[in-house]
Fold these 4 entries.
Entry 1:
Amino acid sequence: MGIEVKDFSGEGMSRVYENQKWMVGIKNWKPANDISGIDCLERHRETDELFVLLSGQCTLIYADGNDQNPDIKALKMEPFKVYNIPAGLWHNTVTRKDTKMALVEDSATGSHNSDVWPLKQDQIAQVKKLFKL
């Protein structure tokens, strides 16, 4: 038995390690996570999700309040800090091309217990405005 080493350098996210309880992924920039491509938020109804910024820049977008009148906020991540997205919180990541993050979540997290919220044009404009402050 030896040590396994995992890596991912492509666009988007890859589950680089997974067992029956938890998963570790590497998330890199992709067009849908660029500020010019952001168009939705997601939530995991049953599980938390952890992010760690390894390099580059990432801002977490999240929505408090009810689904009809959300209060969309932004939090710029700092390298090597652990950010917990609690179950049920609408969120997304806005990254730049040099971004690399680690993420950890329950291995049972998937489309069957997650939702995607397509943002309306005024909400996309609100997200973009957060980056001009």
Entry 2:
Amino acid sequence: MGATCGHWMASKELGDIVLIDVIPGLPQGKGLDLLEAMPIEKRDSFVLGTEDYKDTANSDIVVITAGIARKPGMSRDDLLNTNYKIMQDVVSKVVTHSPNCVLIIVSNPLDAMAQTAYKLSGFSRNRVIGMAGVLDSARFRAFIAMELGVSVENVTAFVLGGHGDTMVPLPRYSTVAGVPITELMEKSTIERLVQRTRDGGAEIVKYLKTGSAYYAPSAAVTEMVEAILKDKKKILPCAAYLEGEYGIHGLFVGVPCKLGSRGIEDVWEIHLTDEEMAALKKSADSVKELVAVVGV
């Protein structure tokens, strides 16, 4: 996941990139391999692989993908507590060497780990962002485009809420060339695509068996990084720490955000129906359960 983020970002020449891992030799090998691709791609991104956080000093953006996947026999609480300890270690080192960076969290469980990073870092809420909505919306867009046989460029979609079974795809705000998909598809078809979106990660895991998605998640991270580095003021669904927006307090939940040079520059509160709002609150309650386990 982390190396593929580096791949996308280097290919877009977004800046100099440092890959860091705890496995000796792994980041150095991947970093060097990617660096040697730059002359072919005609990109001047410098790529370095390392095990030393000193090499990441003064980063503008730090993407955290560290964490373990759930193993057979491991409870949800075991997974949370293990990844909490990993996040604790990583965040402390990142903050020491890059105190002015923007943090983008990818580690799972996404919303709980974003909240952990926010609390541990002491950063303002605009500088800690969870990657989930961009990925989930991209999956929804891909499924809509396939169903209607249209270009993905014509399709926009919004998925709010936590990154998991309780995510909230919004068909009313999902369009093809500006036309809501509610005008283009039967309700049953939309419901099928919504469910496939919710199951998007699990569907890929089922195929891979020993791994999970990394191309689309890392592309989603790259879109967020580009929006921040280029100060694009792009509206993207991201996990943000809410302080009353949508009636939610003190939790990371996926909502539409404006990303620019300062990270999250604004949270957009769009009108939701009672049913949509209830689904978002249910999603927030699931996040609340997770963060309670690790006490953040």
Entry 3:
Amino acid sequence: MIEVFELVKSFDDNQVLKGVSTTFEKGDTSMIIGSSGSGKTVLLKCLLGLFEPDSGDICYDGRHYSKMTTKEKRNLRKEIGMVFQGGALFDSETIQSNIMFPLKMFSDQSQEEMLDRVNFVLNRVNLENVNEKFPAEISGGMQKRVAIARAIVMNPKYLFCDEPNSGLDPQTAIIIDNLIQEITDEYEMITIINSHDMNSVMEIGEKIIFLKDGLKAWEGSYKTIFKTDNKAVTDFVYSSNLYKKVRETYNKENS
């Protein structure tokens, strides 16, 4: 479990997070949603350890980040997988080298062991015969799957995804959503996704955190979001045609 306690983060005079508290459970795909400037990216970066909060704390399975030594923080980093927006693959490196990068940084495995692990995760994301290809030689959807393979190559406890469906067509986005959820279930990870894709929210949002102006304005699931009367939530998501369609169906079935 990841527990977030009254997290506050400012940049100069701009307070971006204003006391956010929540929890993320093992085996769940959790979504952080909100408009631009709501604080969702800053929250994600705090969870990753890229930003130090001004006050509050984050607890990873009983370990308080504020009390960790530098060595303990480095060890925590080994337990984290990250899928960046756009994939963030190294263009000049092969797919194999891209996926092997975390292993070289954080493990003491032999070259043979690392290669075995690379091939294992490539197979897990349904990619074959791409080891020696470069990112530019494969499709956008395949690049996202490579990014997921790299994120899980260290067998992480925690998986963070920043807009994983950015730039993808709807059909490919669904494939990526399903893959993330399958891997979360299979590895019993804590998966946290920063997203504006309402299709993803409705499909795999087992927990949804809605931020507005640096505050947690609503918390629930893809099921309870249909029933909420929280105006901040409905104003944000009701522009989605998918949301309109699903909510109308839900209302008819439960009237």
Entry 4:
Amino acid sequence: MTIVSLKTEPKGELYRIELSDGSLFSFRNCYLPTELFDIHLTNPDTAQGKEITAEEETAFRHASACLRAEKTALRLIARAEQCSLGLARKLEKRKFNKACVNAVISRLSELNLLDDSRFSRLWLESRLRLARSPRRLMSALCGRGIDRDDAETALKAVLDEDAEFSLLTRFVKKYARKLGDGETGNRSLKYLLKSEGFSHAAVQKFLDGDF
């Protein structure tokens, strides 16, 4: 297999290559092994007629597949904020192989176009009014592939004192009506609220009527 032509495209890191079997495709240089870049891309004008090995051809085609996956990922990000695992699943569902997906996820993270912490905060903020409790929020966020420690950090950032107390009040009105009154009812309510992830301070504030 030989290179018929290799040209840089206007967008900087993009290249367009034609091979002797008639293949014509674009790729981004960051998805190529460094040694392959050094051999063929340092001076693209001299690449014409160069022989490439089967391994090098595979690397070029892999870089092209990564570029296609990247373009798909950017369209998804343009529609809505994405998290790493969620985006990876969507790309794999679209038949991109795992190696391409991992490379794209890594690049977009480096460019700050993909940020699990930012995704977590935005996701939590969008669901606070409909949320049931901190525990349910945590569970839902972790279910989207967010690391538990990262999810806890995001929840602490979003759920300030006022937001937590508002959430707690709504929870009590909707879910805790059958616990009864008096000391027994208060103990049951306190246990329920703590099991749902509400802080001790918020629970005590509610039970004391300090609001």
